[in-house]
Amino acid sequence: MSELDLSQFEKKVVLRNITESDIDQILDMQKVCFPGMDPWKKSHLKSHIDIFPEGQFCVELDGKIIGSCSSLIVNFNEYDDRHTWDDITDEGYITNHNPEGFNLYGIEVMVHPEYQGMKIGKRLYEARKELAAEMNLKSIIIGGRIPNYHKYSHELTPRQYVEEVEAQNIYDPVLTFQMMNGFRVMRINRDYLPDDKQSATFATLMEWNNIEYHAKSKRHFKTAYPVRVTVIQYMMKQIESFEEFARQVEYYVDVAYDFGSDFAVFPEIFTTQLMSFLEEKVPSKAVRKLSEFTEQYIELFTDLAVRYNVNIVGGSHFVEEDDHIYNIAYLFRRDGTIEKQYKIHVTPNEKKWWGIQPGDTVKVFDTDCGRIAIQICYDIEFPELARHAVDQGANIIFVPFCTDDRQGYLRVRYCAQARAVENQVYTVIAGTVGNLTQVENMDIQYAQSGIFTPSDFEFARDGIVGECPPNIETVVVGDVDLEILQRQRKTGTVRHLHDRRKDLFELRFKNLESETPEDH
Questions:
Q1: pLDDT given at position 122
Q2: Domain with 150 in it: what CATH number?
Q3: Using an 8 Å Cβ cutoff, are 510 and 386 in contact?
Q4: The one catalytic residue among 343, 350, 363, 369
Q5: pLDDT of residue 282
Q6: pLDDT tens readout for residues 392-402
Q7: Cα(281)–Cα(438) distance, integer angstroms
């Protein structure tokens, strides 16, 4: 008898995070698991993957998806105990996911009926518990269906039904399973899922506590989460060397440090000041000479961010890549790591004089003060980019800019303030002032840098944390409170993120690679 090929007997069960290629299979499975209930839309699952990919799991058997679960992170004490599924999930899109939250909230678990009994649900629940432990979350909370309740609703109240299940006098496929996995009932919510007829729209609010949880940092008893920002309104003037440029830059980073800032923000293409000592006068050639300082620029700002313990938005700089010139903004984290954001929309002036090419990647960055985005000057005038950034979790959008007249400046300012209102987000603009009379196409500058908020009672009057006087070399320092921002998104006078009509329109990038920190 020949040796058996054991591979023919193997069943390959894989638990992994959901990817976009799994969406169609999951939608098909959901129709089988929950007949009669409104299924996910593709846009829901795509949003889950974009916003919190670590929290979306599936089980695959020989290449077929047979189970899945979805979740997000919240600060549960910000929600009413009587919340609905729509409240806790932002109608299924989880744009209210809070990376700084305490609780993992499970919003869906399903196992294909043909594969029940294989403990697929237990694998998914264990994956959630491991994630909660890894992320040091306080607990897992779920709103659990009670699908057998309709059989007893004529004789038992929901509370009585739950008590009978807890006493093991009645079996409920969901509630019994959850209790066996260490969840305890906190309360019963009415109208949790209006289309869940089997549960008569009721749900059990249940919690599993992470016994290894350790409260730490700003998340402990948080009533405020202030982030201090120093905005540098940088003077463009003639210099003689890169060393002189470095001394000026370090001076302002030192100022930010003295104020205890979390971020120091420099303006767009302020490194063109280096052109003032270059011999080249033709703009298209001068910009390539300027790009030769890229390594020195990166080394300088990396060193300053670490030495002064400040996250630095290093304005933007012209960089040559593959024989093309790009306008790139760099984020220098105080832990020594570096990120970059290409300018997406290039102005006619940049194309004409310098031959700048547009980038095609939109990013949101994790920092020790939450998620942020950088949108360079003209980019803030296109509302889709800010909306995308906030959908990916950004709480602050930094806007380095460079404008030569008041009209151009006002376009940037008005749009930054509009984005703050539309997306319930903080925006920060940092511009250049002064003159480089000897540099072609960098003759004059106009700026009034500032820090802006949504317009509501919780924030500063007129939605302005602080602003510089126009056209002088100075800084503005201000605190933005991320905790107030989160509360205002849920309970503000108006709630743009919550009230956006996703049933009528959605944002979809075409032929555009979109990155979040998890893509690195």
A1: 87
A2: 3.40.630.30
A3: no
A4: 343
A5: 87
A6: 899 999 999 99
A7: 9
216 as an active site residue: the answer is no
| pLDDT tens string 227-286 | 999 999 999 999 999 999 999 999 999 999 999 999 999 999 999 999 888 877 788 888
**Catalytic residue from among 100, 268, 339, 350:** 268
Residue 315 forms part of a structural domain: yes
**Cα separation, 518 vs 97, whole angstroms:** 15
Assess if residue 187 is contained within a domain.
yes
| Residue that is last in its domain, among 177, 209, 241 | 209
pLDDT in tens, 349-366: 898 888 999 999 889 999
Supply the DSSP symbol for 435.
B
In angstroms, the CA 118 to CA 218 distance is 42
Report pLDDT digits (tens) over 423-457: 999 999 999 999 887 777 777 889 999 999 999 98
Task: Provide the number of structural domains found in the chain.
Answer: 2
57 residue type, one letter:
F
Is 280 one of the catalytic residues?
no
- Please report which confidence band the pLDDT of residue 516 belongs to, taking 50, 70 and 90 as the band edges: very low
Q: Is 461 exposed, middle or buried (0-12, 13-18, 19+ CB in 10 A)?
A: exposed
- Which among 482, 445, 515, 273 has a CA at the least distance from the CA of 370? 482
Q: Which domain holds residue 243?
A: 227-491
Answer with the one of 209, 241, 267 that is the final residue of a domain.
Answer: 209
Question: Catalytic: 12?
Answer: no
> What is the C-alpha separation between 375 and 398, in angstroms, rounded?
6
Q: Are residues 192 and 243 both part of a single domain? A: no
Q: Is there a domain that residue 190 lies in? A: yes
From 377, 402, 415, 468, active-site residue: 377
